[in-house]
Design brief:
Largest sheet: none
Mean pLDDT: 92
Strand content: under 5%
Number of helices: 6
Radius of gyration: 15 Å
Shape: globular
Order of helices and strands: HHHHHH
Helix content: 55-70%
């Protein structure tokens, strides 16, 4: 049985996220409660930020720079709160654009680096999308959307 490539894992999990987002009315995207007190709009910026960490990590591989530990001694909660505060007043269109642009960068890098291990990017990409896809689907169920 062939092993799933990082590109395939990212693609299928991203599609599930897009499907979960599909059909949410724009006026509901800012409602609190999709993940804790965060809205769906908040999650878009959150996903974009962590995906940008994967992009930076992969860019260092492309340019043969020393690899930085993607996680290291990271206080995830502090970073999440800091990034949330930075994006709190961001327009929905800007949050969407940031997420799409970051994802396009990731996809382009994965095309250049076909041997990326799943474990190397899971936490900031496909595993992260899956986590928040479930949050969004549960919120939609609770909210009747």
């Amino acid at each position: 049985m062939a092993q799933t490539s990082a590109s395939d894992a990212v693609s299928s999990s991203w599609q599930a996220l897009m499907d979960a987002l599909d059909g949410i009315p724009e006026e509901r995207m800012g409602e609190r409660g999709a993940a804790g007190d965060w809205s769906v709009k908040d999650l878009l910026g959150h996903i974009a930020y962590w995906e940008s960490r994967a992009v930076a990590h992969l860019n260092s591989q492309v340019s043969n720079e020393p690899q930085q530990d993607v996680y290291g001694d990271v206080d995830f909660e502090a970073i999440n709160q800091e990034q949330h505060a930075l994006r709190e007043s961001q327009a929905l269109s800007d949050a969407r654009a940031e997420m799409v642009q970051t994802h396009e960068q990731l996809v382009a890098l994965l095309a250049r680096l076909p041997d990326v291990s799943l474990e190397d990017i899971e936490g900031n990409t496909f595993g992260h999308y899956a986590e928040h896809t479930q949050d969004i689907l549960a919120w939609r169920e609770r909210s009747g959307i």
